Prior knowledge:
Shape: globular
Structural class: mainly alpha
Number of strands: 2
Oligomer: single chain
Amino acid sequence: MLKFLKNWTLPLAMFAGAIGYFLLANVTILEPAKPFVNWLIAVLTPFLIFAQLLLTFCKIEPKELLPKAWHVWLLSIQAVSSGIIALLLIFCPMEEAYRDIFEGAMVCLICPTATAAAVITGNAYYNSKTGTGKLGGSASTLTTYTLLSNVLAAIAVPLVFPLVEPHADITFVVAFLKILSKVFPLLLAPFFIALLFRYYIPSVHRLLSKYHGVAFYLWAVALTIVTGQTVRSLVTAAADVSIEIMIALAGLATCLFW
Length: 258
């Protein structure tokens, strides 16, 4: 049973999140619980991301974090592809509905890889003898890419978005600091704390490294919550259903492109 749950964690978590939202939104008896659930989600989501990354970072050797050639290639593709779409949006007049679709594709390209990527790669079906997962990925190299892509996004987004959306009344410095304020507590702080434990509190580091596999299950809980929030956004969105479908297809196209 446990093996089945682990093999099908992704679809099960997404299904649970979607069902959870519809139950909470439509079952009258659960109405009084909504304020508490909203509060719990707001508190629990950043904690889960922080905890899963801390556990994953604790088992990564710092010497393995050196950038690779493929990091440069992927970051270049990220920057160039999103830049091309940004130029289309700036210089090619188009209807608002089409702008939303292209902007959705641009966001998919310019935004960094999911922080959970290193968690999944490092903990799903982890092989202690080879140091890799059965998917063939390396948690350390993917961690490096996650850190670099977040830095790229923190620089590129404040530069590009004010040009694409001229009404965005925000300067580069303010936007950069705002993004950094979101990235540091959830991504960089766990990384530096893991290094602190490794070099100065080795007993805590060994304990966390021993239970690094728990990060995979924390990711599953976080995915359930995020799926519920995504379904709520889709259900309550003011956009036409056809536009939502086109944005989803644009996201699928960018994923296939990658």
